[in-house]
Design brief:
This protein is an alpha/beta fold. The protein is 43% helix and 17% strand. Helix 7 links the parallel strand 5 and strand 6. The protein is globular. Bound molecules: 2-acetamido-2-deoxy-beta-D-glucopyranose. The site of 2-acetamido-2-deoxy-beta-D-glucopyranose (NAG) has 6 residues, from helix 12. Keywords: Cell membrane, Endoplasmic reticulum, Glycoprotein, Hydrolase, Lipid degradation, Lipid metabolism, Membrane, Microsome, Signal-anchor, Transmembrane, Transmembrane helix.
């Protein structure tokens, strides 16, 4: 009996160790903390899969647990005044400094878009609330944090449109004036899917002939920028990295566009391109737009083109995929050239690293002033790990550098 118990104990122990252990590169700091954090995320993801399998609750519904757990009630304090408002029918959190202004002095503003793969997250999560307060106090700025609607309840372009309506509303001279914001010092910024929305908004505003107030800068934190090639070197290198494994990113992409599961499987196989997207592959050609050190270990082959497999009437996702409001990397240089000054943050251990690297390179080649900050020990989502118990030193470094850039450029 005893030996059976010991055996059972050993098997369970080995199983737990195997489950908790995930290979994490040596140069990432606080590896054990990241391993445990990742174990939690993976467990939740497995639970979500299981729940969907049993028909209890869909995958994203279970994953929303993280968003709910981290939810706070944003309250005003002695330094920051917070209010919930509606801009063109979309909820926003307005963070304003209490600090006195000099006579006639106008403030900077940052429109911030949270991450979460267009499916998860909220401006009301503790990490975003904290970041907004830091921006307010360190830059004496107004922060507009946008509560756009999420997939799978709402698909593309709802997320983009919610954000665009907010930005258009805010960038009116009388509205800016009512918040004492200088129309020449407004930024759009976001992380991950929020970085995608920020890049898309910056492009669409520039193309809008009726838009008079322009953005001064765009600050993109490990942004998602293209859906056509999901096998870039960074997708290959980091497919099993913590926080955002490739399967989760593919799930986010496919659910952004549709609830039809077949898109997920074809995106997993990277054979989701069609004759309609083929002509745009040149804009995401990583053998042309990645620095040599990042591509030399990989052989480029363009994603295969499925010959007219898309059944009639169901080509919605194909249309969405090639839409620059979803994939801002898919525009010609002429659209990039007039864009505002950019800050692009990338992390080495991130499937999205090459999206950011290619955008930084293409913007620069088009003549845009770009600051590209690459964290060689960074992992996806790091900036949001800024509160206990998942507080990482790298989050503090990233926030400081990001805020410093805004101080100098906004
Ligand atoms: C990608 O770029 C390489 C090198 O610049 C070029 O040889 C190749 O034809 C390009 N392929 C596509 C699909 O754009």
């Amino acid at each position: 009996m005893r030996s059976k118990a010991v055996l059972l104990f050993l098997v369970l122990g080995a199983f737990t160790a195997y489950y908790v252990y995930s290979p994490i590169p040596d140069d990432i700091e606080e590896r054990w903390k990241l391993m445990l954090t990742d174990c939690f995320f993976r467990s939740l993801s497995h639970l979500a899969d299981f729940s969907e399998l049993l028909g209890l609750k869909d995958y994203m519904g279970v994953m929303m647990f993280i968003t709910f757990v981290e939810r706070v009630v944003p309250v005003s304090d002695e330094r920051v005044q917070v209010a919930e408002e509606l801009f063109s029918g979309v909820e926003v959190l307005m963070y304003q400094p209490r600090q006195e202004r000099g006579a006639g002095e106008m403030r900077r503003a940052i429109i911030y878009l949270h991450g979460g793969g267009w499916c998860l997250g909220s401006s009301r999560m503790g990490p975003y609330d904290l970041l907004a307060r830091q921006l307010v106090t360190e830059l004496n700025a107004v922060v507009v944090s946008v509560e756009y609607r999420l997939a799978p309840a709402h698909h593309f372009p709802v997320q983009f449109e919610d954000v665009y309506h907010v930005v258009k509303h805010f960038l009116q001279v009388d509205i800016l004036d009512s918040y004492k914001v200088d129309p020449e010092r407004v930024a759009v910024s976001g992380d991950s899917a929020g970085g995608n929305l920020a890049a898309a908004v910056a492009q669409q505003l520039q193309l809008d002939p009726e838009q008079h107030v322009k953005l001064k800068v765009q600050a993109l934190i490990y942004p998602v920028l293209q859906a056509l090639d999901l096998n870039t070197p960074s997708y290959q290198q980091n497919q099993h990295m913590p926080i955002l494994p490739r399967t989760l990113m593919v799930r986010f992409w496919s659910q952004y566009f549709t609830s039809d599961k077949s898109l997920f499987w074809s995106m997993m196989a990277n054979d989701h391109n069609s004759p309609e997207s083929a002509a745009l592959l040149k804009f995401v050609n990583w053998s042309a737009f990645l620095p040599e050190s990042y591509r030399q270990a990989y052989n480029y082959s363009a994603p295969p083109i499925a010959a007219n497999e898309t059944p009639k009437g169901s080509n919605g996702p194909v249309r969405s995929m090639i839409d620059p409001r979803a994939s801002p990397l898919l525009v010609p240089d002429a659209v990039l050239r007039p864009l505002p000054k950019a800050y692009v943050l990338t992390c080495e251990y991130d499937v999205l690293r090459d999206d950011g690297m290619m955008y930084a390179m293409r913007l620069r080649q088009a003549g845009v002033d770009v600051t590209h900050e690459h964290y060689s020990d960074g992992f996806h989502g790091a900036l949001m790990f800024n509160i206990w118990p998942t507080d990482f030193e790298i989050a503090r470094r990233m926030a400081n550098n990001y805020i410093l850039w805004l101080k100098e450029n906004l």
